[in-house]
Design brief:
The protein has 428 residues and is mainly alpha-helical. The protein contains 19 helices and no strands. The longest helix has 30 residues. It is globular, with a radius of gyration of 23 Å.
Length: 428
């Protein structure tokens, strides 16, 4: 039984609407203040110099100079920020710099064998006005991530879970760190959450062949953009495949030729993601079709060499197992109280799926993302670097917010039922 009964003023739908809108307005304000203040205070990372320099150079090369020649693109002095790093994150940083900063030479080669002060003296650190532009761009996309996560949770559960998810994410120390750095991790987080939104829309329209295919193609474009920020964005293909599998299991007796329908959607998803990765990267599309595979395997071999080198010089930062990953996240980025909420959310989601799975519980979409990120990050993560944990944080936060809401129902069930009721939301 709930501890608190519903207050009298909530019997009026207008009051419910005012309460909801006030809460949502306050949520937007708090999230914005959290992400757009303190940008200059984030600790500097040497990679910010590389991303800033490469971002400006490659954006101008692609969109201003229209130069796609291999000689211009394969700038070896950019090291791992050159052709080895995929371009979409660099484009976004470069776009922000192009809009805000005067035309100039923004070249910084950070020397990790020296400290920040020495690098600054040598001109290897971007000045504050340059660094601030890249950091604000990351903050803008991080704000978009919070808004997208709110939308996803609202459509999966209700607006309270959405607002709580946005607040929890904006106050997560790892998420905020990369929201305040001129690096590309904020962008991959944005595209990963957009994937969840698209997968939910696909799940809700799984019986409509035309809309499902259109969403599958859109999802493939999103995967292609995400993987063109960092290659681990390809985990999105596994996520879409899992959601398509869920749809097939639910609809296989209702949709005529369901196997062919859903396999076609998955093939379209893979094709559109591959096409997007080629379209945004001249290293791929300036090659002949027969050379595409060769160029991709060349990049993969170079990435593997770089990874092996990093593992050799940072042996103390190697990851042993998935349990090590989860322990690190809980210790540093996901407090034990949120872990308890996560467990409650997982249990409740599984209970709903078990009870209502064949009637298409939308919890399947959130749970699917949680499974894919655990498997992908836990089996692939090469080093104990905080940036690799961000996808798992994005998967855990919605389920933790859902768990908190379910606990709240035990205490103030009538209140939560009233303010999340559809008829109350209409303000009737």
């Amino acid at each position: 039984m709930p501890v608190i009964d519903m207050p009298e003023f909530l019997h009026n739908s207008r009051n419910v609407t005012i309460l909801r809108n006030s809460f949502l307005g306050a949520t937007i304000l708090i999230v914005a203040l959290r992400l757009f203040t303190g940008v200059d205070d984030a600790p500097f990372h040497g990679d910010e110099a590389g991303w800033t320099a490469a971002g400006y150079y490659y954006f101008h090369l692609m969109f201003i100079d229209h130069d796609v020649s291999p000689a211009s693109w394969n700038r070896r002095d950019f090291h791992e920020f050159g052709i080895l790093s995929l371009p979409v994150g660099k484009y976004l940083i470069g776009l922000a710099m192009h809009i805000v900063l005067p035309k100039g030479q923004y070249v910084y080669h950070y020397d990790f064998s020296k400290d920040v002060a020495e690098n600054a003296r040598l001109g290897n650190v971007p000045p504050p006005n340059v660094l601030r532009v890249g950091r604000l761009c990351a903050a803008v996309f991080s704000f978009g991530t919070c808004c997208s996560l709110f939308w996803f949770c609202w459509k999966t559960w209700n607006w309270i879970v959405g607002a709580v998810s946005a607040l929890l994410l904006s106050y997560n120390s790892l998420f905020t760190l990369f929201a305040h750095r001129a690096m590309t991790d904020a962008y991959i987080g944005f595209f990963l959450v957009i994937m969840q939104v698209i997968c939910l829309a696909m799940f809700q329209r799984r019986g409509d062949f035309r809309k499902f295919l259109m969403l599958s193609a859109l999802g493939g474009i999103t995967v292609g953009l995400c993987a063109s920020v960092k290659l681990n964005g390809l985990m999105g293909l596994g996520y879409f495949a899992l959601v398509v599998l869920f749809c097939f299991v639910i609809e296989r007796r209702k949709v005529r030729r369901a196997a062919g329908f859903y396999l076609s959607a998955l093939a379209l998803n893979i094709f559109s993601s591959a096409l997007t990765m080629i379209a945004v990267n001249p290293f791929f599309y300036t090659a002949s079709p027969s050379a595409l595979y060769t160029r991709f395997t060349y990049l993969v071999s170079q990435w593997n060499e770089l990874l092996a080198y990093q593992q050799r010089i940072f042996p103390q930062q190697s990851i042993g197992s998935l349990s090590t990953v989860l322990g690190r996240i809980t210790a540093d980025y996901f407090p034990i109280v949120l872990t308890c909420f996560l467990v409650v959310g997982l249990i409740q989601a599984l209970r709903v799926i078990g009870k209502d799975g064949r009637k298409a519980a939308p919890e399947l979409v959130s749970l699917g993302f949680f499974i894919v990120t655990l498997v992908a990050v836990g089996s692939w993560i090469p080093l104990d670097w905080d940036r690799y944990y961000l996808p798992i944080i994005l998967a855990e936060i919605p389920l933790a917010a859902y768990g908190l809401f379910e606990i709240g129902r035990l205490l103030i069930g009538p209140v939560l039922a009233r303010i999340t009721a559809p008829e109350a939301a209409k303000g009737s």
